TrEMBL record:
It comes from Aquimarina addita. Residues 204-256 form the PAC domain. This is histidine kinase. It catalyses: ATP + protein L-histidine = ADP + protein N-phospho-L-histidine. It is an enzyme of class 2 (transferase). It comes from the Bacteria.
Amino acid sequence: MLKNELFNNVMQDFNAGYWELLINPYGENWSDLFYETLGYIKNDKESNLDYFLEHLIHKDDKDVFRDNFLNYRKNSVNFKQHIKIRTNQDVYQLFRCATNDTLPVDIKSETKYVFFFEIKLEPDKTLKKDNFYYKETAQMTATGSWYVDFNKKQSYWDFETYRILEYPEDYIPSLKDSANYYAEDYQQLAAECFFNCAMAGTPFNTEIKMVTANKREFWAKAIGKPMYNDNKEIVGIRGVFQDINESKKKEEGLQKSVDIIAAQNSRLFNFAHIVSHNLRSHTSNLSLLVQLIEDIDDPKEKEELISEVKTISSNLNTTIEHLNEIVTIQTNNKQERLPVKFNEALQLVINGISHMIHQSQSQIRADFSELEEIRYIPAYLESILLNLITNAIKYKHENRFPIITIKSYKEKGNKFLKIMDNGRGIDMALFKDKIFGMYKTFHYNEDAVGIGLFITKNQVESLDGIITVESQVGKGTTFIIQF
């Protein structure tokens, strides 16, 4: 027995019998109080699981307790359970079982224990209450129970499982149909959980997307554990699942809000940087030139300085236009989305830059057969295509003509637009985190401004989309937009 002052004090307070789970030698050591509570003399009964299951526990509780106990011993899965145990008066007394981590205090023990707390109520009345509370709890928490019997090759559902999965009461569940209970993207996860539990005795506790008989998808928390026979062989799986769709939606909505706020903060930081750095640079230069003009008497020198003032003024105007365009994106994202055909949007862009395409001998190959249109702000889609196509032409590979491939498609319920080129490519090791930054350039072209990709990213994200980039130096670049 564990000689631990805290443990002994807890046992005195609880006044509960217990089993100590031994490793070497393998077995269970029953405490004196466990025998005493049942009215037995120590050593009158064998202190092992097999004897307990065969002679002492009520048959209605036997299977569940055996499964819980073996899962606790083999997999350290703690449990709480009500069971009925035969006393020396040949009547069944109700107990509440609990393991180390389910106690209200930490007993500071690495040894595993199962505690038995006597419940001073008439067992038959308690059973009726328990059954009532079970149904009430299942309904209020939207929790269904099920189990699969490998020997009988049958599956069983409780009343709440039928209700949640929207199947009629006369429906007979089957393992053959089990894939139909899960969303397509989660069928592999369900199969892996079930297989590992059935073959290796590994319990599972996961969140998974399920499907009802009426094809309604919902999020569920699924918990399962193996069932054992008297020979400690796995003979089935018992489990529960809870409909957590509402809480999951709130969680996803909260995460989406966090992501939006983070993205907005990032854009605000960029905006503040441009305002504080670039505008201050222009105004400082203007201020310096004005001072110089005032101090110089030579008309020719003044004329030269005034020319520089015009250049700085033009640059300042360009910067303000860029900033205004960014602000406009954020204020215009509430515009009504309209059906926009990809082919028509692309044709408008091609018409506008036909001279550039012809001069560079570019080829544009488009395939919109899988997804012909999307609800979007037309001006944004045209702007996105314009920026990515002109970039592909500007930064073409010096040894080949540009080939730009554009494809729209659907995947796992989402809509995408992919734009690929065979240009110079971008060194992702150097520029991965800067590609969509404002005034960031990567190829040192004299006409490179570094505003196009920044604006494109803002337009995509303002409508809750995602833009990603893949690139390899010397081979080309691919942009993927998820709408």
